[in-house]
Amino acid sequence: MANGAPWGVVFYTTSLDTLKSSPPENKVMKTATTIGISASTSFYMLCGLLGYAAFGNDAPGNYLTGFGFYDPFWLVDIANLCIVIHLIGAYQVIVQPIFAFVENWSRKKWPESRFVNKEYAFGNYRINLFRLIWRSTYVLLVTLVAMMFPFFNAFLALIGSTTFWPLTVYFPIEIYIVQAKILKSSFRWIWLRALCLVCLVVSGLAAAGSIRGLVMSVQTSKLFLSVS
């Protein structure tokens, strides 16, 4: 007891007075975003520029195994594990809007259907048969198509080029312009628009190149045989 107060209360009050408060969320997010984008941009630019400078158009899509050897095996295994972890997380984020759209549309289309709307409780979990069957079927079909046409690098380039500009450049810039109330025709407004236009041109060129790669792969490939 101190001055009639329990020791726990005194310790808690003292901790509140001595501990630094956490920085604002927007500053933390800005720092994390800057570090993440800078690291990924540096890595991809190094691989792309140095690879093209060294091998030109013959640069392989996979620098670890594209040269015909797989040593050291542990490095290739770690790289494949990182790809699996990355794709599992990214797939869950990207596919959720598709799932939500189909399920919301189905509930509005068949509001009286028990198959579509009924929830079954299993312990702490709730399962809907329509959601279970629809999502499982979607994943199986996508996996089957990916196995039939395994142009991983070309598909990845096409998806990246078509989603990069709207999701990474256009919408964030538009949101920033509105939020920051940047005046039209000001210097900041002009260079933001210029950046948006340059990225659009780059995305268009990348999409054209990936489409050409897909066309060439289709002409020389066989089903269920990986070519990239």
TrEMBL record:
* Pfam families per UniProt: Aa_trans
Keyword Transmembrane helix on entry? yes
Give the source's domain of life in one word: Eukaryota
The transmembrane segments are 35-55, 75-102, 132-152, 158-178, 190-215
Annotated GO biological process: amino acid transmembrane transport
Question: What coarse category fits the chief subcellular location reported for this protein?
Answer: membrane
Q: Which UniProt keywords apply?
A: Amino-acid transport, Membrane, Transmembrane, Transmembrane helix, Transport
List, alphabetically, the InterPro entries matched. Answer: AA_transpt_TM
One GO molecular function term of this record is:
amino acid transmembrane transporter activity
Where in the numbering of this chain does the Amino acid transporter transmembrane domain appear?
A: 17-215
The UniProt entry's GO CC annotations, sorted and at most eight, read:
membrane
Q: Where in the cell is it found?
A: Membrane
Keyword Transport listed? yes
Protein known as: Putative amino acid transporter, transmembrane domain-containing protein
- Please tell me the species this chain comes from: Helianthus annuus (Common sunflower)
